[in-house]
Automatic annotation (TrEMBL):
Keywords: Glycosyltransferase, Transferase
Pfam families in the cross-refs: Glycos_transf_2 (PF00535)
Region annotated Disordered, chain positions: 1-23
Protein name from the UniProt record: Polyprenol monophosphomannose synthase
InterPro entries: DPM1-like (IPR039528), Glyco_trans_2-like (IPR001173), Nucleotide-diphossugar_trans (IPR029044)
SUPFAM superfamilies with a match to the protein in the record: Nucleotide-diphospho-sugar transferases
Length: 281
């Protein structure tokens, strides 16, 4: 179980003031970071996370990176455990999951979620390894969770959100995909494709993760849409999204095509349900 904060605090409270579930130093949160060929970025992101939120735990989910990212993750975990053992005898904050093959961002996150749920973390976070999501801004997501939100999305497209060094064609595709999803689904989420987000464990326990088959861009839309449909409190907070400086993007045309098709299907399904033509799933 995650130390410092009782996992049951993630349940809805009857008091007007919600019970905080994440400590000021990040205690109670598990940050899941999938990796594939991120050997240069991973040490930097781990250092930044620990400097910003020393109480947060990190799970690196590596898909057998050919560049040795998994070995670097193991070394980071070993050093962190040794450092903490010398201070207070506690277990390390950095954990590593090695997967045998690369089969999509969605599957990597699902594996990480399952790992975190089995260990009773009250809050589980999605974050990229490439530096586009700033660990220094994670407190904004945690503040919203502690204020009562069930899912908090770090948004590029709400007031205060920013994009830094992102190619214009990527921004055009991203904004277009979010507008399309918002219209097709009728979801009032401005950045439903965003991959910087914090879930209360109660959300992940309820939205039937074992039935999720989507990946990449579509995975983020899928989980946010499931959360909205389940009646949870979804909020967005502004973040600054910075284009990666090292490595290459994993985005592909196939991922975009999957998202377009799946969103159309979900939108039609939702409208048919509202009309009573089909039953709610």
């Amino acid at each position: 179980m995650a130390s410092g904060i009782d996992a049951t605090a993630g349940q809805r409270q009857s008091d007007d003031a919600p019970q905080p579930v994440v400590g000021a130093d990040g205690t109670g949160a598990l940050v899941v970071v999938p990796t594939f060929n991120e050997r240069d970025n991973l040490p930097v992101i781990v250092e930044r996370l620990q400097a910003a939120l020393p109480g947060a735990h990190l799970l690196v989910v590596d898909d057998s990176s050919p560049d040795g990212t998994g070995d670097i993750a193991d070394e980071l975990a070993r050093k962190d455990a040794e450092e903490l053992a010398g201070k207070d005898g506690s277990a390390g904050r950095v954990h590593v999951m090695h997967r045998k093959e690369k089969d999509g961002l969605g599957k990597a996150y699902l594996a990480g979620f399952a790992w975190g749920l089995a260990r009773d973390y009250p809050v589980i976070v999605e974050m990229d390894a490439d530096g586009s999501h700033a660990p220094e801004q994670l407190h904004r997501l945690f503040d919203a969770v502690n204020a009562g939100a069930d899912l908090v999305i770090g948004s590029r497209y709400v007031s205060g959100g920013k994009l830094v060094n992102w190619p214009k064609h990527r921004e055009f595709l991203s904004r277009g995909a979010n507008t399309y999803a918002r219209i097709a689904l009728g979801a009032k989420v401005h950045d439903i494709t965003a991959g910087f987000r914090a879930y209360r464990r109660t959300v992940l326990e309820k939205i039937e993760l074992d039935t999720v088959e989507s990946a990449g861009y579509c995975f983020q839309i899928d989980l946010a849409w499931r959360t909205v449909r389940a009646g949870f409190d979804v909020r967005e907070v502004p973040i600054t999204f910075t284009e990666r400086e090292l490595g290459v993007s994993k985005m592909s045309g196939g991922v975009m095509s999957e998202a377009f098709t799946m969103v159309a299907r979900w939108g039609i399904q939702s409208r048919l349900e509202r009309l009573g033509i089909v039953k709610n799933r």
